[in-house]
UniProtKB/TrEMBL annotation, chain A:
InterPro entries: HPr, HPr-like, HPr-like_sf, PTS_HPr_His_P_site. CDD domains: PTS-HPr_like (cd00367). The keyword Ubl conjugation does not apply. Signal peptide: none annotated. Residues 9-98 form the HPr domain. This is Phosphocarrier protein HPr. General (non sugar-specific) component of the phosphoenolpyruvate-dependent sugar phosphotransferase system (sugar PTS). This major carbohydrate active-transport system catalyzes the phosphorylation of incoming sugar substrates concomitantly with their translocation across the cell membrane. The phosphoryl group from phosphoenolpyruvate (PEP) is transferred to the phosphoryl carrier protein HPr by enzyme I. Phospho-HPr then transfers it to the PTS EIIA domain. Keywords: Sugar transport, Transport.
Amino acid sequence: MLDKADGQIFTGNVRLVHAVGMHARPAVKLTKLAKKFQAQISVRVAGATDWINAKSVAKIMAMRAAHGSTIEIKASGSDAEAAVAALVNLITTDFPDEVS
Amino acid sequence: MQGGATGLAFRGRTASIGFAHGPFVRVNAGASGERVAGSLVEEALALRSAIDVASGQIADLAAIAGGEAAQILEFQVALLDDEDFIEAIFASIGEGSPADVAWRSALDEQIADYNSAEDEYLKARSSDLADLRDRVVTILRGGEGQVLKIPSGAVVCADDLPPSRFLEIDWSGGGGLALLRGSPTSHVAMLARARGIPMVVQIGTITEVAAEVGPMALLDGEGATLELDPSAEQLRLFEKRRETHRKSRASARAILQRPTASWRGERIKLFINIQRVEDLEHADAQYADGIGLMRTEFLLAERGGLPDEETQFQAYDAVLRWADRRPVTIRTFDAGGDKPVPGFTQDGEANPFLGVRGLRLCLARPEIFAIQLRALARAAVRGNLKVMFPMVTSADELEAGRKLFADVVQRLQADGIAAMLPELGIMVEVPAAALAVTSFRAAFFSIGSNDLAQYVLACDRSNGALAPLMDPLHPAVLELIARTAEHGRRAGISVSLCGDMAGDPRCLPALLNCGLRELSVNSSALAQIKQTIDRLSSGGGLG
């Protein structure tokens, strides 16, 4: 997708395989990883209306994403493409202990 | 509760076993005193600085505590780093709220949100948020850096205690924790057990006795009692209980901590049987070589009908995580026979022990079996899982089960869900299976000696009138055990025994002589069985 005004927006979809859904530990890992990027990154559970800041642990927890739900990710900014890829990978690999 | 000359005694629930005798220290959970609010800028600065101090304190605690405690605290640190969350609080200060009021109401809102969740896991997180709320409020009220002043070895009493407060107390000199509320499954209880700190919860209310003087207290984590200002007689009885506990723990520990059991130079592997996940909390469970039998029928006993895939997966995953790299053998539903399950087992069988039970029932109800197999296939990627089928008669049944399992794995993988087919084995409990053991393409065998003896001897094991005949050491039973062990030895397939015989010291010589080198027993029998093997190995009798 190309947005002429804001530069490129990258998106991704990934299924949440974590057994208990988006709980404290996965939420902490996700926000920590998101904060490593300059890009503005938003997520939402597929079908939800509002996008949520991927760098806010309180909001990620409040999203209450359940096991098996699909997470949509979008990012814009200099490292947006890498950010989406990294987050998709984190969720696909079920939040391993070593992320770096 | 009893008062007067005998001192005061209170009873609660055990959260962590152990004994503590020391000064009684009542910790007041509620912070006192109100702040005087400053200007908008001062309030904003006060909160910013309180957050920095709290963040530093928690990071220090996490660094010292490590492991699981550090992970519990990581969520609190992440929340303090959450700009969206913090900015909203500063906005509220900008509108005139004092720092502590703004902070407290933001946290209270989150806590209420978590508490309203259906999910037990989210509800449990709310105590972590309350912990964080109180820490920052205490700092704002000038209690910055104020560590609880607790004398060494004290019996600490609080309404409830958050994990970070527990970690601030120096437990190196012993001591114990008595909570008026609290829960044996809380994070604090987990931390107390990990550190061997005795802990009693849900004491209710206690009569405050000269709290500022600090009377002596006796805390018995085993009997779940707290005694204040004890009489000489109470103290004597307490010390006696403590000594008995110490001796039995010491002898069992000494045996369990020794290198693995061996007999005539061969290693004997000792596993544990569990009925439910909570059985892993037994203090001796950690010394097992793995889990030889996890029964899954407890899942069928839950209210609300047959368990869904997620409930099952979480139970299996919890056990695999506990076991780390050690093997975990999970037995698929063994319903039927003397274990009827509404909505699953068949009614009106004339002879249910010879009826549609175990794997027979699961193959007859593939829609129920498939849910368990899905949960197991997902769990298989998380640890060293083996799955065994109960009540198998012919090799075709094993292959039918394998086929269902393989289909389930394929479907999961096609959906992008991590899953794999674990090692598949069978229970050897039907005489036909023991006699034709070479016909099974199994990765392992586990002898279910209770049913095997019942079927070989044609004795209902619940019929007391047959007790003299119901002898598991009957040569016919031992013959079948020996045949199975011999086949395993030749074919290089693991054979274990998980029935009551394994936990009975009198049966051990016969089992070892049959060629068995793997036994699975209840955690409570582990020490005695290991001790018996040691004695037999050094030429001694059963003692």
